[in-house]
Amino acid sequence: MKIIADRAALMEAANLVAAVVPARSPSPALSCLKLTAEKHGGVGTLTVAGTDAEASLEMTLTQVDVSQPGVAVVSAEKLKQILGAVAEGAPTITMELDGDQCKITGSHAKFRIFAFPAGDYPPFPDFAAAIGSATGPGAARSTFIHSAGGLLALVTRTVFATARETSRYAINGVLLKRDGRKIEMVATDGRRLALSRSTLKPQPAGGGAGGSGGESTPVSCIIPTRALNLLTRLAGDPEASVRIAVTDNRVFFAFYDVELKGKEGKDASGGGQSPRAILSSTLVEGTFPPYEDVIPKDHDKKATTGRDELSSAVRQASVLTNEESRGIRMTFSGKNKSVRLSSRAPELGDSEIDLGLTAYEGEDLTISFNPAFIADALRAVPEPEVMWEFKASNKPGVMKVGAEFLYVIMPVNLPE
Question: What is the four-CA torsion angle of 68, 126, 48, 94, rounded to 10 degrees?
């Protein structure tokens, strides 16, 4: 293998893909990146790939001149360090595989690192086979296309609410449900629940699952939090497309730089364009909790307020909280159309912040929440206003933004 690559593009790809690579592994090859240089019709590409045997990421660069196609398997950490150490004034770097050594040259600097045999690297999940097969263990049960911006909104509005440490593995990920053009993601840690909805663009009829897109095929699966956090770094242009494929035990996200209008052939491949990145992950095993039962449906108190104003008030009130008193009290007044946020920490002091409401319906109410849980949700939504719905001080509160976002949060008990 011998290539000349754009240094900045290669460094960005190496940093992203290295996030998948485990820091320590009994298999030395798993701590490496696999670089595959190819040339088709005079056009060169370099695919940077990494995996930890559960999640995998492949990114394809076109800013490369391929003199000799080939495969190099090199340490992810050392490649990142070398690309970062090469002076920024060097627009390109040269990489050449010579036996078991990889030579890297750029801006008066030369490096030589050992390479592993390509055959030692584990095989990657095959996205093309998943969407191209109608049957078989690796065939997609459902495939569909969504905009990168729409998918990113679904993820950012839910992934923050997943459980971090629990023996209930099913809530360590985000539930993805797709039925026709309706798609939603749900996450919970047992004390709060975030639900985000979206609508897919109409796609040509025809089908079933597999390569045809499976618009009529409902699917439900639980995606690990780690994979979705990486997805947020890959979204790119919000108008571009992401093709999602779900198999029996894996999910694929293929990112394109164009809008895809169909399911197969040239339209589905972006006029012949290959995906710039393919992220895949094993699915979380288990059954997601019946989240519909958690969402209250009998609220009789409603408050509307500005997102930024509420965020600022919560931040101020949370200053005087501690581990023993980790909560803020919210007192809603219909007469004054306002809410008072207060907190108290023994031996520290207390706070009161008054905030006007855009609207309030129902009787006055006092209810307490963990301020971090409120702040997390407010950071996840860009809309200028949010609505709260309540029943009683000991019942869950619900934050809503239109019909696309719903957030259930359990109250906390605070000493008087």
Answer: 0
Query: Phi and psi dihedrals of 99, rounded to 5?
Result: 65, -120
The DSSP call for residue 294 is: T
- The β-bridge partners of 101 are 98, 114
Q: What is the percent of the chain with per-residue pLDDT over 70, rounded to a whole number?
A: 92
Q: How far is CA 289 from the centre of its chain?
A: 21
Q: What is the phi/psi pair of residue 93, to 5°?
A: -130, 155
Residue 172 burial (CB count, 10 A): 20
- In this structure, is the dihedral angle defined by the CA atoms of residues 284, 289, 295 and 297, taken in order, positive or negative? positive
* CATH number, residue 244: 3.10.150.10
CA–CA gap between residue 99 and residue 328 (Å, rounded): 64
- This prediction has a pTM of 0.91
Residue 290's identity, in one-letter code, is: P
CA 124 to each of CA 55, 91, 143, 252, 306: distance values in angstroms, whole numbers, following the listed order: 10, 31, 19, 12, 47
Pair (375, 274) in one structural domain: no
Return the pLDDT at 258.
86
Q: Are 217 and 190 in contact (CB under 8 A)?
A: no
Same domain for 205 and 306, yes or no, is no
Go through the chain and tell me how many residues it has.
Answer: 416
How far apart CA 249 and CA 141 sit, in angstroms, is: 10
pLDDT, tens digit, 9 for 90 and up, residues 70-109? 999 999 999 999 999 887 778 999 999 999 999 999 888 8
Q: Which amino acid is at 239?
A: E
Domain residue limits at 332: 295-409
Q: Is 323 exposed, middle or buried (0-12, 13-18, 19+ CB in 10 A)?
A: exposed
Last residue of a domain, which of 291, 312, 335?
A: 291
> Across the chain, what does the average pLDDT equal?
90
For 267-286, what is each residue's pLDDT tens digit? 344 445 789 999 999 999 99
Give the Cα separation of 50 and 278 in Å (integer): 11
